[in-house]
Here is the input.
Amino acid sequence: MITAEQKPMDEIRGMLAPYKRVLALGCGSCVAECAAGGEKETAMLASALRMAARIHDEEVLIHEKTVDRQCVEEFILPLDDMIGEYDAVLSLGCGAGVQAVSEMYQEIPIIPALNTEFLGETKDQGYWVENCLGCGDCMLYYFGGICPLARCSKQILNGPCGGSVDGRCEVNPDIPCAWQLIIDRLTQFGELHRLEEIYPPKNWARKQGSGPRKIIREDQQT
Amino acid sequence: MSTESRLKKVLNQGGFAVTAECGPPKGANAEAVLKKAELLHGKVDAVNVTDNQTAIVRMSSLAACALLKHAGLDPVLQMVVRDRNRIALQSDILGASALGIHNVLCLSGDHQRFGNQPGCVGVFDLDSIQFLQVVKGMRDEGLILGGEPLDKAPDVFIGAAANPFADPLGFRVTRLAKKIKAGADFIQTQCIYNLDRFETWLSMAVDRGLTEKAYIIGGVTPLKSAGMARYMKERVSGMDIPDEIITRMEGVPKEKQREEGIRICVETITRLKELQGVRGVHIMAIEWEAAVGAIAEGAGLLPRPEIDKG
Here is the structure.
């Protein structure tokens, strides 16, 4: 899923300063799953903003609403009837959600309340880790199911570097050395010999070679 | 001015090579580089110039190499893949060769987190092994990555680093083999303090026939103080300093610790010279270039041999 974290309150208040009628807009998908922008978090943020406005003696109206997916037009459409009441939307969607809403309602500023982080795995309650870069050309087969691009701090495809000690990464001992994991895993499968081969340079054209990426599936279009 | 690699010639002639390290200044001062060059002149076969080491902005390695070349030294251009993509790396290899810089050491580079630009992009477009392969292709086949021909191939003696002290030990030798297969003509190792571990690694390399395929140059760094030894042990990842070295440094008064550091270095080199498969020593006297001559002298490595100019 896409993970995100809420921006600091001061930054959010700074961005909202010019606006008197604000819709806090949550998203019920990924950012709800990672407890950053779902219905509950939207209610809490709206309430915190109202309280801050009261303390500072500001006259601001803040309403809240959560849609199932801010990144899909048909889920945004129900806002048509209400959007006119507001002079700004504070979106608790990911970056894709903020921009999708923006595109629908160009006459009104859509302000991000979250910092979108990464494609994450839920490790534990309240604990998410980045395991995938979305490079467009999955290499997990070759590396025993562990991605060196996402999980090695130097994105080494022929690792490990000289900073791998006791299975930890030199960049931060909290980070497991991805290459130690890869070696352990391939050893377990009796496939360590795969790493004798030099893995060639990555074709980054699949990620960023032609500007922003898109997927067009004619079989899915009507 | 010789336009070929002296380091390559010394090694090819069967000599025990001596290289040193020169860290470029944090500024545009050519004099700072030339002063270091003077300290190293005649004491070593080649001088490695570090590339924004520890991710701290310094004078470019390529520029400092050109200064050393003009001062009559044989520079080894260290290049990290942290700061340049494959276009810039290949371009700088061509530029280096054109400037008469004929040794290159292909490295990953210290992570940007440790330096003074922690907000920068870490490029890591190629890794060090892929980079070695690219340089070899440019030199031996006259082709850049992707297969386009060069009008003149660069003339470079290709080096790589190895850390015998990082984990996992078994795979360290596999990685050395990959570096040699990729194109490394010579290998400079991480600083050796734990000779036992180094010898274990080396014998594994000998068993795989690797020491026949590339020149292994053992790294040493003279300790300036017991404090430096403790710092390196605790804070520098991949650095293996046995407790007896630290105890030994602590056992001499502060003002004598530098001498002791040099003595340890000389003893290490004396042992390295006797090991099958070690073909030289790389003396990394960090901001202490003056120590290099004393170490080379103490280890019986002076004068440096004449080389066949042909």
In short: The first helix of chain B runs from residue 6 to 12. Chain B has a mean pLDDT of 96. Residues 6-298 of chain B form a domain with the TIM Barrel fold (CATH 3.20.20.220). The longest strand of chain B covers residues 17-22.
